[in-house]
Structures are given as C-alpha cells and as structure tokens.
Amino acid sequence: MILSGRGVTAVLGPTNTGKTHYAIERMVAHDSGVIGLPLRLLAREVYTRLVEKVGHHNVALITGEEKITPHRARYSVCTVEAMPRETTASFVAIDEVQLAADLERGHIFTDRLLHLRGRGETLLLGAATMRPILQQLLPGITIIERPRLSQLLYAGSKKITRLPHRSAIVAFSADEVYAIAELIRRQRGGAAVVLGALSPRTRNAQVALYQEGDVEYLVATDAIGMGLNLDVDHVAFAQDRKFDGYQYRNLNPAELAQIAGRAGRHVRDGTFGVTGRVDPFDNELVHRIESHEFDPVKVLQWRSKAVDYSSLKALKKSLEAAPAVAGLTRALPAVDQQALEHLTRYPEVVDVATTAERVETLWEACALPDYRRITPAQHADLISTIYADLVREGAVNEDFMAEQVRRADHTDGEIDTLSARIAQIRTWTYVSNRPGWLADPTHWQEKTREIEDRLSDALHERLTKRFVDRRTSVLMKRLRENAMLEAEISVNGDVFVEGHHVGQLTGFRFTLAAGGGGSDAKAVQGAALKALALEFEARAARLHAAGNSDLALSSDGLVRWLGDPVARLAASDHVMRPRVILLADEQLQANAREHVLARIERFVNHHIGTILKPLDDISRAEDLEGLAKGLAFQLVENLGVLFRRDVAEEVKSLDQDGRASIRKYGVRFGAYHIFLPALLKPAPAELITLLWALKNDGLDKPGYGELIPMLAAGRTSVVTDPSFERTFYKLAGFRFLGKRAVRIDILERLADLIRPLLQWKPGAEPRPDGAYDGRRFMATTAMLSILGATPDDMEEILKGLGYRADSVTAEDAAAFLASQSAETTSAEAPVENAVAENVDAEAESEPVGVTQAEAPAAEATSDAPAEASPVPVEASPAEEPVEAKPVLLWRPGTRQENQRQGGRHQGDQRRGQRHGQGEGREGGRKGGAPMRGKAQESRPGGGQRKDRPDRHDRGGKPGGPKFEGRPPRKEKPLDPDSPFAKLAALKEQLKK
What torsion, rounded to 10 degrees, do the Cα atoms 437, 443, 447, 453 define? Predict the structure, then answer.
C-alpha cells in the first residue's frame, strides 16, 4: 500500500471548536463537494444548513434509508457508509475520523480516510488523539489543531432532581433513558428524549422541544456526542458503562470527553458531572477531560477493499486478509460479515451463489443494516429471502414487500411498539433505496418515507405525552420571559393559567394540580395566586353578604360555603362556643380576612343557637336560682342529658318552685334521666356529638357519627358495638345497657309501664297486665313493643336499669295468679280469663317463663271441668314433653345486689348458670338452703330440685312472697272447690 497525505488537511481538536462549521464553509467555497458524517441525524442537520446557504436544488442527501437527489446537485451530504468509493468532486470532508478505531464501524471510516480524495481539497475532522496515527499513515498531511471556544469544568455529583436547567443526562440504554425521563417529568416538569435509534424526524421534534425552551432537560444516549449542536450548559452521566456490540465496558476518557464536550456553546462555558447513580470521577480523569489530554489512537480498524467475488470461499478469504501497513489492524467481523458466515451454511444459498455476479449480489444483500437488533440468525434469514428474490426474479417480490410494509403501517400502541415498527420500516426504506432491488423503487421510497414520517410523528407524540408535562413547561417558559400570565377560573373552581389547568380554587385555598409538585411548583403557584388576587377579594365580599342558607356546618367540623370548606371548628373553654379557624391562603388579606371570619362566626353561633335552642336558652337563663341554676349548669355541661342517679341529692332537695322554673325550659324529670326531649332528634344529636368530639378530640374515635342514622331511622333500641366510644350513645340520645342501647325517652315510657305494676296491691281490681304480687312484675308485650326488643334483650335492658330477677316455674306462676284472683272473686270464669289473659300475653311476646305450648290457654272457656287432680297430667307416650321456661319476676335491686352484680366474677356467673339461674338472678344460701323473701333456685325446665320439698308459704299458697324449706309431708287430697283443683282440670283439658 502506498499512501500519501498530500492535499489532505486534518482539522483536529475537542468538541465546540467549530470544525463542522469550518468544513461547511470550505465546502461551499468549491463548485462541488461531498461530506461524510457518522450519524444519519447529523447528516440531516448539515443538509439543512447547506440548503439554507445554497438552496435545496443544489444539495443531495444520501443515507442508507433516504435519498434526496436533485438533478445536477453540486453538493452531497452522506453518512460515511453511503459515501461513494470514488468521486470527482472538488471537495471531500470526513467528520469524526476518530471513529476509525471503533470495533464495529471503524473499518469503513478507515477506508474512506485512506482512499477517498477531493480534486481540490480533502478535510479530515476529528479529535486531537488522531494526530500521531494520521501522520504515520498519511505522510505529508497538514495538521491544524483548533482550541475549544469555551472552558469545560467539572461540577461533581448531583441528584437527577437537583440538576440545573439546560442539562443533558446521558445513559446508554433505552430503558434507562426512559426511566430517567419519567423521573424528571414527575419532579421537574418534563424532558426531551434523544436516542440513536430514533428516526431523524422524531429526533428533530424532540430536540426542538428542548431548544425552544419547552423543557429544560434532555435525556440522551451517546448519540449527542457526535456533533449535535445543542444549547446544553451541563452534561450529567447517569451511566459510565456501555455495550459496544461485543461486551459491556467502561467508557475511556476520550469517549467521556466527547460527550461531556456537548456542554457549553460557542464562547459560553459548560460543566459536566455525574448523578447519584455513578461514582464521582477521580481527579486524574477530571484533569484529562478539562485539559483535553488523552491517549493517542494507536491503530485503526481495517478490512480489505479488494474483495474477490469469484466464489463464496474466495469472498470470505479476501475479507479475512490482514493489513500490510503498520498502524492498521484487521477488524472483527461486522454485521455484514456475520450474516455472510451464516448464509454460507444455507444449502439453498450455496447452490445459487455459483457465479461472481451472484456472489457480489449476495455480499450487497449482506450490507442490509440490522435496524431491528434481532439475532444474527434471524437477520440472515431475512437476507436469504431477499437474495432468493434477487437471483430468481431480479427484484424483491413486491407482494412480500407490500405485506412487510403493511405490518408496520399502524400508529397505535405505545413507545416500544412504535419504535419497533420504525425499525421495521427503516429496513424496507433501505431496501427501496438500493439500486436495482425493486421494480418500482420510486413508489416504495415514497410509501416507506410516508409511513416512517407518520410513525415518527406518533412516536414523538407518545414521548411528549409520557415525558413532558406541557402545562408546567409552557408556564415555566412564560415565567422565564417575565410575561404577565393570564388566569381564568371556571364555575367549579378550576384555575387555568395561559390555557393550562394549574390547580383548583376551593373556597379561599388554592391547590396546585397533581404533577405540579416539582422544583418549579412555588413559581407556578405564585404566578397563579398573583393572577387570583382579585378573585380572593371578590369571594370575600360575596361571602360577607351571603345568607345563612349558603353556609353549612358538616359533621367533620368544617364550615362550608356553597359546598367549599372555608373554616373549621376547634375546641374552646365553652363547649357551646367552639373556636372558628379560617381556611384561607395568605392572599386573603387583612380587612377581607376579618370580614370573612366575622361572618362565619355569626353563622356558627346562629346555627348552634337554632339547632340547640333549648340548651342555648337554659345556658343563658337568668331567672334560675340556687339548686335549679346548678342543675341547669350541669345539664349544659353534659349536653342535655343527666343520669338521675348522678344528681339524686340535688333533685331530692329541689323544691316545687325550682322544678317549675327549670321545667319551663323544656327539661323533663324522668325516672332514669333528667333531659331535654327536644334534643332527641337527628339534627340536635348530630350537632351535640360534634361539639363533644371537638372538646374531647373525638372526631377520630370509633363510632363517631355512626349512631345518628339509627336515630334518624326511628330506631328505639340498637345492638351495641363494643368498639364504639360509649359516650356517643348518650350523645345520640341512647342509654347504653350492656348488649343493647335504648333511646332515653323510650326508657322513660318503659318506666311509666313498670310503675303501676309495682304500685298495684294484691287483691285490687283490675290487675294490670304484667303485675304479679305488688313487689315484682313480668315483662309484657307492650314493653317489648316499645323497645323493639326480644325477651333476651329485655333481660339485658332491665338488668342494666338495676332490676333483679327471681325465677319461678310457669306452673307456680299460673297457680299464684289464679289464687290471687280466687281471693277477690268466687266466679270461675273471671279466674280462668285472668290466667288465660296473662299466659296469652306472655306467649305472644315470648317472655321467659311461659312456653308456646301453653299459649292456647287463652282460648279456654269457663266450661272447663271444675274438679281435677292437682298433680299435672303427664304427656301421652306419643307426645314428647315440652320443656317449660321459667318465669322471671322482676323487682328493683338493692344497692348491695347491684354492687354484687357489678363485681361478680366470671366463675360466679358460671355457677349460677349451672343451677339454672340467669344473669342477675339471686342465688341461694351457702349449702343450698333457700333464702327467706326470695324465690328458690329453679331447675332447667322449671322443675324443683329433687332433694328439696315443694315450696309453700305459711298460708299454703304456692308462689307466695315468702318461702321457707319444709320437711317432706304426705300428700293430702285437695278440696274439689279449691282453685288449684279447677286450675289443674283446666290444664288437663288443654293438654287433650
């Protein structure tokens, strides 16, 4: 090889030295010229600049995928791969010649810089590291070194979210680029994305976003290191390792400098650094990048251009030839050579490639770039299909071409899908631009170009939609321009600035829209609030003049104006006078703020005074004195309900005048409570609950607000929830009684039903339903009805009210009631009716003590036999005996009993249940002896213990108020005229 550098000039230097600009100026000084560039993207940029200088009819653009060739064009802009092997042009320039050392593409750059020359001038543009090898390979070459126009400085490590504006973040994989862009969109408003795999149209649109200031950040691969001229102030490395086509490796200092050199433009200094994902650069590396001192390139990649097409074997051997000149090394197999290696194993290819012409055609087909980044074997399969068509038919089958193009012609899908379709259509764009490969190349060139443009536009749209917050970017641009922002507010409070939704105005508070929380959030919020200043003043005036119907107090303690929260309530010294805290931004100033606050306070006081008028009236009462005034004070402090037992002494000491004075305010003195009945409604109860919760920090306590709907539904009693705060039951107007809570006014009605039963005297007529012996009573249907409860619930309620139960058998209860009736009248029918009436009432409500089997007693008439055996008739063998429940006789419990009940241990409860005694019933004495004045323990089913005698009082009346144990005695025949005989006969008839 005899090489010469005569007529060749190498312009060398770091980035931002104006080398490409110099080459363009030299090119237009000649009558014709060719310039080769490393990237299709950069070729497009230089083509545009040349068109601006000499007109589009004078400039051709030739890449592997695109050809714009005006008739008699004087200048050609090409990718290095698309440069002609020989030319008659006056000027030739090759940019980024340091890529001759690249393992994948280096042999192409080496071939062009060694062999392609212009008639008048040849320029080689690249890094200063090429100086020694160029001087060695091209003796006589002229070297011109150009200094960088601005200074490059190291700025250290910074988090991605803390990078300055006009920064480019560099990564080396598409996934990493997308992840960084997404992070910047969330934190800083958006970023443009540039990758080498993007089509020129998409890349230019993304760069335009950055260059025009719509976004402040650019996320890119090392594609930006190849001469793209951008207004970048800072370059940050998010990765320092890349895959070079063969392995993952660290970037060398020269490669880092090539990318970092994008920072700074013309005479403006730039900085570079790393993100938190990369270790900071050491001092030596920083010094080399800042001073542009790098190891010189020692060898260039080379592959023989003397290709032998005589046979496949000769072709492969010629490609494997070693260089004969020092400073060159044989290149590793590139994509085309790898494809050839695979294809020579295909029998159908070997059988066809038998002539020099066909071997050359095969080698041209192998030059098809692998845009899709698929496996070498898959890429070889595609080349094999194309080659078969070229050999058999002389052109690629158009039906096959049309099907492949049709598959790519869809603009739906996301970023990855569109990127894959663009890579696919680029393959067929390359095919359509190969001379002689298609019967109608013009049609397919236009078709594939049109599809690629549409896919590129769709990809740009998806990239922008995903990685750019247009609202924030536009606002930031206007703020940088110090422009007055135009704001408007919709009817529902949406705030638009410059036509972009920036947030929501709710009452007197402005909330920035989601996604506006980046570093520029304060600036956007400040601009919006500045534009909203007049709206705050206008709203304050409207609220000050608003009627009470426009304001509302919700259960969460917020005061709302036309649905928007404008204040919240907080606790104060007086439970009825909560403090009002205004919910407004600082933009609501002095006088307007005071007027708004005063108006809301008036509404709150009026609302409380109206809804809780009885309580408000009694709190302001001036005619109450002494004990009445003290009782009223306690009633207000307890929000309208007092347990009578808690103020028993005060009530007892209160004279009639005092009671009258407090009653006129609506206070009721009940058996269990002192309360205001007017407050036992949903609205007052809800407000009372809120006031208590504010005072006692109870808004978050379990059960808050859960009981008001039950009150509104008219429920007289509810099942209690052990997780709820007990006080909420009282505030809602319910008395907590174990497993059930009963409305306070209903309990007073219950007291009204119980009172005559305990005041009734045996022998008096008529006997009230449920009365027993004047000391005790039975639960009635009326009681269960007003409570909305079952008999089991009734037990819980009565025990909670302090009543205690004595248990007797159903037979004894019926006999006792019959005896009471016999003493007052000798008529049989009234006796039987009284017993039947009581049994019937108890059967309907299913109270404890009377079974459903005994309910038909109500249907009995006076025609029952007058004489019957006193011993109960046993059931017939065909009928199974029905176990009768004991009857519970309720009486007011003593203080000792109540205390015992409250402190009883669980073991005592189990013991009582073992003897058939329910909770709250009195047990017997130690040793099993019955107690005087109390019912003896009953057995399950209502029977007595077998080791105990029958219980009778001294007068021989079963079920009497006094019982004592007696020794067993002989059975005496009963008098046929005795009421017991008549009762037994009646029961026997009913059983039949």
Answer: 90
C-alpha span between 468 and 188 (Å, rounded): 9
Confidence of residue 922 (pLDDT cuts 50, 70, 90): very low
For residues 784 and 790, is the Cβ–Cβ distance under 8 A? yes
> At residue 368, what is the residue type?
L
Give the model's pLDDT for residue 824.
58
Strand order of the β-sheet with 564-570 is 551-553, 558-561, 564-570, 579-582
Average pLDDT over residues 577-599: 90
CA distance 895 to 802: 9
Angstrom distance (rounded) from CA 286 to CA 702: 63
C-alpha torsion 393→395→400→406, nearest 10: -160
Buried b (16+ CB within 10 A) or exposed e, 948-971: beebbeeeebbbbbebeeeeeeee
What is the identity of the amino acid at 688?
A: I
Distance CA 903, CA 165 (A): 74
The backbone region for 529, taken as left when phi is positive above 0, alpha when psi lies in -120 to 50, beta otherwise, is: alpha
How far is the C-alpha of 26 from the C-alpha of 491, rounded, in Å?
63
With bands split at pLDDT 50, 70 and 90, how would you rate the model's confidence at 8? very high
- 701-713 pLDDT per residue, tens: 999 999 999 989 9
Are 5 and 134 contacting, i.e. CB atoms less than 8 angstroms apart? yes
| Residue 872 banded pLDDT, cuts 50, 70, 90 | very low
Res 920 pLDDT > 70: no
Tell me the angle at which helices 312-319 and 356-366 cross, rounded to the nearest 10 degrees. Answer: 50
The reported pLDDT for the residue numbered 474 is: 67
How confident is the model over 224-265, as pLDDT tens digits?
Answer: 777 567 889 999 999 988 887 778 888 889 889 989 988 887
Q: DSSP secondary-structure letter at 56?
A: G
Question: 3-state DSSP helix/strand/coil percent for the chain, to nearest 5?
Answer: 45, 15, 40
Torsion from C-alpha of 285, 286, 288, 290, nearest 10 degrees: 160
Q: Are 647 and 631 in contact (CB under 8 A)?
A: yes
Length of the chain equals: 992
* Tally of CA atoms within 13 A in the half-sphere of 32 that contains its CB: 10
Distances, alpha carbon 748 to alpha carbons 539, 594, 653, 787, 790, in Å:
50, 48, 22, 11, 19
Which of helix, strand or coil describes residue 94?
strand
Report residue 898 as tokens: 């109540």
Query: How far apart are the C-alpha atoms of 850 and 986, rounded to whole Å?
Result: 16
Tell which wins on pLDDT, 585 or 343. 343
End-to-end CA distance of the chain: 134
Q: How many CA atoms lie within 13 A of 166 on its CB side?
A: 18
At 518 the pLDDT is 52
- For residue 860, what are the CA distances in angstroms to 840, 842, 855, 924? 11, 16, 10, 37
pLDDT, averaged across the chain: 81
What is the distance between the alpha carbons of residues 743 and 4, in angstroms, rounded to a whole number? Answer: 111
Helices and strands (H and E) in the chain: how many = 35, 34
Going by C-alpha positions, the residue among 799, 800, 817 that lies closest to residue 808 is 817
Residue among 966, 814, 786, 987 nearest 889 (CA) = 814
538-566 tens-digit pLDDT = 899 999 999 999 999 999 999 999 999 99
From residue 82, how far is each of 58, 372, 438, 613 by CA, in Å? 18, 20, 19, 93
From 561, 505, 499, select the one nearest 532 (Cα to Cα). 505
Cβ atoms within 10 Å of 629's Cβ, excluding its own: 17
Helix locations, 664-743, DSSP H: 682-695, 708-712, 727-731
